[in-house]
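Researcher: Next entry: Rieske 2Fe-2S domain-containing protein (Sphingomonas daechungensis).
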Amino acid sequence: MAFERVASLSEIPESGSKAFDVRGTPVLIARAPMGIYAVGAICSHQYTPLEGGKLKACFIFCPLHGVRFDLRDGKPAGTLTDQPIPTWPVMLQDEDVLVDLG
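Model: Predicted structure:
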């Protein structure tokens, strides 16, 4: 695994998310109540940004139509899409958020 620094933890709001460009890949870092996650930053339903979507437990809700994605595996719930969003390993090192895009 090749983890790389994406952000400082202080850049990600508690119970919020922020999108970053990591080597040309849109990555959303979500600081959810159940932990910190790295997922694709674009909804697989209408290809809109997920940044700013409501977080609940380990789920993010798309701000456009409310599609719910599981931050652990990217799987959607509901009928609007059956396409998951990508997920990547994430870890904290001191105050740095590190992601492995593989």
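Model: Note for the record: The mean pLDDT is 96.
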